[in-house]
Design brief:
three-stranded antiparallel sheet; DNA-binding; flat; alpha+beta; homodimer; 127 residues
Chain lengths: 127, 127
DNA sequence: GTCGTTGCAAAGATTTTGCATTACC
DNA sequence: GGTAATGCAAAATCTTTGCAACGAC
């Protein structure tokens, strides 16, 4: 089996092409043909976070997810039924207004939750 | 040692008086004199989440935190230096605008991050 | 006595680390 | 050969679960 592939670049590629943030195990699965181990995935993710290649997103009730830092600013919609996570375009106004006096704002994250389109549809069918 | 105290109520009391969201272990520590076990803390938190007594907040790089559901709607400021979490008053406009067509929004969460007042001060002193 | 609650410990799930081995140059 | 990266497995951390014992009534 091939070893010492450019795993960092492979992880970058997978994250760049993903529709939303991925877990470490999602990445290992995507790269399973290379034989990458989960420890190596975590090591590259951690190094990439430090280097600014990736950002991490913590969502309710799930493992940490990662995505490419180069994606345009966006937020998330977490479906409480199917547990999928969707990227959401756009941003909010007035964020600075929330920051307490003397605090220094560096980043922000908005997580919407509810039902995604598919789950709204299947819920309506069931009732 | 006293057993079968009204642990749910004790947990409610601690969360009601807290300055921000607490971890399960914070709660066990706060109630250590009662001899409560961590499993019981988690069991009441889980039941209370289901009953709508508590809400959970997942913040970057830390265990799940909990707070009273009865607190007025607010958001969080997570200091990246001292890792404390502060409640933030107020809310944002235009959240509905972000929701993709066909999705049903039930909740949202805003997590600001940066430096808290104390860390801004000590950072300035150091430089 | 019955039923629900509890503590403890074990199990799960996720993430990190130690270490010998391997690949690259 | 020397250096850095890797896989495996153990450890660490956080959370859940099984179960026997206990308390409330």
């Amino acid at each position: 089996m091939r070893r010492h592939a450019d795993y960092r670049q492979l992880i970058r590629d997978v994250l760049r092409d993903a529709a939303g943030p991925l877990t470490a195990d999602d990445l290992r699965t995507a790269l399973v043909e290379t034989g990458i181990g989960i420890a190596t995935v975590y090591r590259h993710l951690k190094a990439g976070l430090h280097d600014g290649d990736f950002v991490s997103v913590e969502l309710p009730d799930g493992p940490l997810r990662f995505e490419s830092a180069s994606r345009p600013h966006h937020h998330y919609f977490a479906c409480t039924r199917c547990e999928k996570v969707f990227d959401v375009e756009g941003d909010l106004d007035g964020i600075e207004r929330l920051v307490p006096t003397g605090f220094e704002l560096n980043d922000h994250e908005v997580i919407l939750s509810g039902l995604c389109r598919d789950c709204v549809s299947s819920y309506e069918r069931e009732c």
